Known about the structure:
By secondary structure, the chain is of the alpha+beta class. It folds into 2 domains: 37-146, CATH 3.30.1330.10; 150-332, PurM-like C-terminal domain (Phosphoribosyl-aminoimidazole Synthetase, Chain A, domain 2, Alpha-Beta Complex). It has 9 helices and 14 strands. It has helices at residues 11-21, 65-80, 99-115, 150-161, 187-197, 213-222, 235-247, 262-271, 293-301, and strands spanning 41-43, 46-53, 59-60, 63-64, 82-94, 119-128, 136-146, 178-181, 225-229, 250-254, 285-288, 310-316, 321-324, 330-332. The strands form 3 sheets. It has a 7-stranded mixed sheet with strand order 9-11-8-12-10-13-14. A 5-stranded mixed sheet has the order 1-2-7-5-6, covered by helices on one side. It has a two-stranded antiparallel sheet with strand order 3-4. Helix 3 (99-115) links the parallel strand 5 and strand 6 (119-128). Helix 6 packs antiparallel against helix 9 (293-301). The longest helix has 17 residues, at 99-115. It is globular and about 60 Å long. The two termini are 22 Å apart. The mean pLDDT is 92.
Amino acid sequence: MISLAHGAGGELMEKLIEEHISQRFPQHRGEVTLSDLDDSSVIDGIFFTTDTYTVAPIFFGKKDIGTLAISGTVNDLLATGAEPLALSLGLVIEEGFPITDLDRVMTSVSATAEKGEVQIITGDTKVVERGGVKNMIINTSGIGRRSPLLDGNFDVVKKFRGFKSDYLLDSNVKPGDQIILSGPIADHGIAIISYREGYGFESDVESDCAPLNGIVNSALRVGGIVDMKDPTRGGIANCLNEISRRSKVSLIINEDRVPLNNPTKAACDMLGLDPLEIGNEGKMILCVVKEKAEEVLSAIRKTENGKKASIIGMAEKGNKVIMETKTGGKRIIDKPYGDPIPRIC
């Protein structure tokens, strides 16, 4: 029987996809395939990704489901090395949904698409009976082309590592690579649960959802990036474990270097939540050759969404994600079973 945890981005969801969904489909002839389970697939040079947004509530402070949908799909394209081109917009709207609220969401869609440098070029709208959905669901699919910055980026990788890839993939990471996190974690998940449950953190914690074109392009111009990944459902714990498994390396993370805003930390402490497992929608993890890590970090910090970026660790031989704690100890960071806060995206 399907539970909410099956859609929460952790171990249970991965098992569902691998055992009951993806194995039903023959592998396509693309350059990045369904079995790679990266943020986008590539076929005949076309990058493609899709996502469905069921966030509750649909409005959370200055942002909403429209901001979220465009940001999430743009970032999935960017993470694989695409230059995003265009999106589709599919709406499923509950009967009785206020037109003023629809206008508000569409305004966010338009503004965020402009920031993400994409156009909405096709779509579909359905209305279902009251209770068929709650308010609305959005599906966005995105296409892109290979970023013109990738060749120069991988020329730098080849100089220091002796190999050149065509795409930014979770299987590219090697011992010695540095792990950069573009900013403070867990803000999005805490903002959503606070608006949903009325915990009172709304005035201090704002969702981070945003398209990350600036961060990605600034990093690629410096070069030396081997992989990028946006730590959404399951947080950076899930994201780092996926990289570790697919690249067959250990990732050693320094707890002191993981950026976390104080109000978000206070909320996590009060609610008994691990910020490493809470989803984000405006952050990127970048794996960079050691020789270029400081330069990439400096470039990211000059962007609007990367001011608090940090080198949080590095890759070593092994097969685990290990946290070096503030007290001098070490602990294994396991892949979460599910996201502790459901329906954040």
